[in-house]
Amino acid sequence: VEVKIEVVIPEKERSKEEMSPNGKASPLIYKVNGTARHYHLEEHPIASNPYHNPKDVVEASVCHVKDLENGQMREVDLGCGKALLIKESGEFHAVGHKCPHYGAPLVKGVLSKGRVRCPWHGACFSISTGDIEDFPGLDSLPRFQVKIEKEKVYIRASKQALQTQRRTKMMAKCISLSNYNLSSTNVLIIGAGAAGLVCAETLRQEGFSDRIVMCTMDRHLPYDRPKLSKSMDSHPEQIALRPKEFFCTYDIEVLTEMQVAAVDVKSKIAVFKDGFKMEYNKLLIATGNTPKTLSCKGKEVENVFNIRTPEDANHVVKLATSKNVVIVGASFLGMEVAAYLAERAHSVSLVELEHVPFKKFFGERVGRAVMKMFENNRVKFYMQTEVSELREQEGKLKEVVLKSGKVLRADVCVVGVGAVPATGFLKQSGINIDSKGFIVVNKMMQTNIPGVFAAGDAVIFPLALRNNKKVNVPHWQMAHMHGRIAALNMLAHGTEISTVPYLWTAMFGKSIRYAGHGEGFDDVVIQGDLDELKFVAFYTKSDEVVAVASINYDPIVSKVAEVLAAGRTIRKRDVDVLSFRTGDMSWLTGKGS
Asked: Residues in domain Rieske (predicted)?
């Protein structure tokens, strides 16, 4: 028996500047003052023959058909690139071998019930279509057709697909925008982060061909915000989620440096700060959060930063090089910034109210292990205290005074003491907001107002994993899924959110992966070696595992995420020392409770 695999990919862009139905090209241009020029670009048709250039096709024998058992995956090399060959339920499938998000090798991921989950950050892809099913990331995998002939496995693939290892799903074209009133849109998306962008893309992928407008206070098109603290010297174009041409191609209009000041839900009008008004039919609010600032004496001095934009991050790196840095708050942002600057700055000091970093999130034992790693990399901690004063010299920061009485030399200060939902403009709107400022939504990301949806860091929503308890989950992955669910329900699909939260952080070359929702955990079961930073931590509430974290233990977090995503319960007894010593992982393979 032979297995043959053919690549199915969309047709290449015919031209960067396509023509509108009337034959006139109109490129994307948007002005800050609210005046918009529209554009129209044709949808790229699905090609009848995926191989336009025979020279771009490669075919190679990669293995025997019996080399793979059910439930196995294998990376196979075609000479000019690799594919991921999968056998499940007696059928062969083949897709790209790298996760399009950050390039993780999917062969090291988790195969379960028709999809493969990335071992690094938890993105999931259908093995039969290559489509992305859970996030982070925007692109799908290229899918390769499989044929069985004789007893060898052959793969026939496009060299381009093997090299790019990603596929953008086909999207609908927009009807001629010349018919639209400048001040009206079918869908208005407030916020241009992951939630807003995924919402817009999902609408187009589902065939929505009406007008979509995104607006953002930022000066940039949507970018990879987690990199602001993990890779601080990245320039905006390096971390852009999509290039400018993408928004032109798929008729997603973006208003930059535009702030919505109020929303009139009865008239369906958004009022911008500069007075411009825009009518909408459906509204997504995905404004994220606003970082808290210090309230101490001297808070106005120069060189004190919240990391909110690429310019903030770049400026901090420049000022911190060979200088003294003080970071206030051992949050994810604070710790990542400390790790990034440790080798660049003369000194890095971290001030925190708790006695251990990450105590509420990872627990005390994991927090201490992480703290030790930082101390071994020259980061000095000042715990159980806070800032009482920022002192300046000639208007610029000179010293940070702590309530403990300690005075720290400081040329630059980064503040990471939490954030609040950016929802102040909605207070008089009638949209349901809780006492902390979070927008309340249901499982379909709908607010209490018909046609108004909300997503991302600014919402609380029912988390299926925790018996539909309404929670706030400010994770990058979750924002993606919120945006997708909102888009599907704008189109009346009736889709409910059921994803498992998944996050990661990277510090000093070590990645902590985390899945679940551990809020309120009452015990932590740790397997492995904390001192060696090779461990798994299971967070339990009563007898149930509610979250898991690991360092150097891939793909355990992705495995647990798949178990939780299937709606199965992991009991505390399942993760005891004996099960790890004996290698009994039946609870991860569908045989547990």
From this structure: 60-155
301 CB contacts (<8 Å, ≥6 apart)?
390, 391, 392, 395, 396, 397
Record the tokens describing residue 334, joined without a space: 């604070």
User: In this structure, which amino acid lies at residue 505?
Assistant: T
CA distance 436 to 8: 48
Q: Using the 8-state DSSP alphabet, how is residue 240 labeled?
A: B
For the CA atoms of 265, 267, 185, 221, what is the dihedral angle to 10 degrees? -40
- The CATH class given to the 509-589 domain equals alpha beta
pLDDT at 585: 55
Residues 6+ apart with CB under 8 A from 393: none
By the 8 A CB rule, do 369 and 356 touch? no
What is the identity of the amino acid at 558?
Answer: S
Looking at the DSSP assignment, which residues form a beta bridge with residue 214? 189, 254
CB count in 10 Å sphere of residue 32: 11
H or E element that contains 93: strand 91-96
pTM, rounded to two decimals:
0.89
Q: Which residues contact 428 (CB under 8 A, 6 or more apart)?
A: 262
Parse the chain into domains and list their residue ranges: 54-164, 170-292+419-499, 304-417, 509-589
Provide the token pair at 125: 């892809």
DSSP alpha helix (H) spans, 238-396:
244-249, 310-320, 332-341, 359-362, 364-375
More confident residue, 423 or 573: 423
CATH level 2 (architecture), domain 170-292+419-499: 3-Layer(bba) Sandwich (3.50)
DSSP-derived secondary structure letter, 586:
G
Q: What stretch of H or E contains 202? A: helix 194-205
| CATH topology for the 304-417 domain | FAD/NAD(P)-binding domain (3.50.50)
- How far, rounded to the nearest angstrom, does the alpha carbon of residue 437 sit from its chain's CA centroid? 22
Token couple for 167: 């596929």
Checking if the pLDDT of 47 tops 50, the result is no
Given the DSSP bridges, would you call strands 269-272 and 260-264 parallel, antiparallel or unpaired? antiparallel
Tell me the per-residue pLDDT of 499-513, one tens digit each, with 9 for 90 and over. 999 999 999 999 999
* Residue owning tokens 């093997």: 162
Q: Distance between CA atoms of 88 and 64, rounded to whole angstroms? A: 16
DSSP state of 178: G
Residue 46 C-alpha from the chain's centroid = 29
H or E stretch covering 565: helix 556-565
Give the CATH number of domain 54-164: 2.102.10.10
Task: Give the residue carrying structure tokens 């979509």.
Answer: 212
Q: 477 CB contacts (<8 Å, ≥6 apart)?
A: 121, 122, 123, 134, 135, 136, 499, 501, 502, 503
Tell me the backbone φ, ψ of residue 246, rounded to 5 degrees.
-60, -45
- Phi and psi at 552, nearest 5°, equal 55, 40
In this predicted model, what pLDDT tens digit does every residue of 149-183 receive, in sequence order?
A: 888 888 788 888 888 898 888 888 777 665 667 89
Please give the single-letter amino acid code of residue 388.
S
